[in-house]
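Hey team,

Filing this mostly as a record. A colleague (T.K.) asked me to run one chain through the structure pipeline before their review meeting, and I want the input and output archived in the tracker in case anyone asks later how it was produced. No errors, nothing strange. Just documentation.

Input sequence:
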Amino acid sequence: MLSTNHEEIRALFDDWNRALATLDPDNVVALYAPDAVLLPTVSNRVRTDHEGIRDYFSEFLGLQPQGTVQESHVRLHGDIALHSGVYLFHMGATGADVRARFTFAYRHDGTRWQIIEHHSSTMPEGQD
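Output structure:
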């Protein structure tokens, strides 16, 4: 039986954020399972493989994004973990701040947690 806790899952965001800070899309892609699905914040195209995910992050990393989780909810289901909430990205290249909702779905492959699905969408500002 896999033993994990909510803090371990929350820390996976920190790993992802550190990968963003390298500005190397391959470091980010390495955190995603080969069959992962990415529903990205600033693209209309769903990414369903490492090539597509790398393509997205190659452009997104040009904004020099760094995220901070503002609201966090974790659910554990055996070898699947869900982490959802709200994060704020500061774009170092432009100085812009972007609030977005997120969901990361992780699967433990027997060795490590991998992102199997990642959905991010900007907040509908002005809405409750």
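Quick notes for T.K.: The radius of gyration is 14 Å. The CA atoms of residues 12 and 123 lie 22 Å apart.
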